[in-house]
Structures are given as structure tokens and as C-alpha cells.
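Quick one:
INPUT:
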């Protein structure tokens, strides 16, 4: 699963990500690319069902994206 943040500004903003309001860092299943503009979650699990937001910040200020809601369903057999 990949989320993309299309933030632009002058000066160029630093990008970070939150999950349910808590900062996200690299982990074995969570990674960032393209200057943190892309957040990728591998081996997606039901516990990843949360709200994800992009935060763009520079010397002028910061802005937070609307929430992207990830809802992982389980297939019942």
C-alpha cells in the first residue's frame, strides 16, 4: 500500500507522516521514498487500519493533509 504526498512550497517543505496523530518512522514494513513524499506499507495487516496524514513544514509554517483512511478487511473462507 502506498500513499503519496504532493506538497510543494518555497522554501521546499520537509515531509513527515502520522498514523492516528502519532509520528511514523521507518520500520521493517513501513518505508519512505522520494524525499518522504511516498509512504509504503508492505505486508499490510488488519492492524494497519488507521488514518494516515502527510505533514509538510518549512520556515513559513506547516500544513497537514486530510486523513487517508486505510481499512484492511479479512477474507473469510
Amino acid at each position: 500500500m502506498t500513499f503519496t504526498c504532493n506538497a510543494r512550497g518555497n522554501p521546499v517543505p520537509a515531509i513527515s507522516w502520522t498514523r492516528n496523530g502519532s509520528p511514523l518512522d521507518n520500520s521493517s514494513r513501513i518505508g519512505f521514498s522520494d524525499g518522504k513524499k511516498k509512504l509504503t506499507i508492505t505486508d499490510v495487516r488488519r492492524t494497519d487500519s488507521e488514518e494516515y496524514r502527510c505533514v509538510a513544514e518549512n520556515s513559513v509554517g506547516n500544513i497537514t493533509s486530510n486523513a487517508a483512511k486505510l481499512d484492511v478487511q479479512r477474507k473469510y473462507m
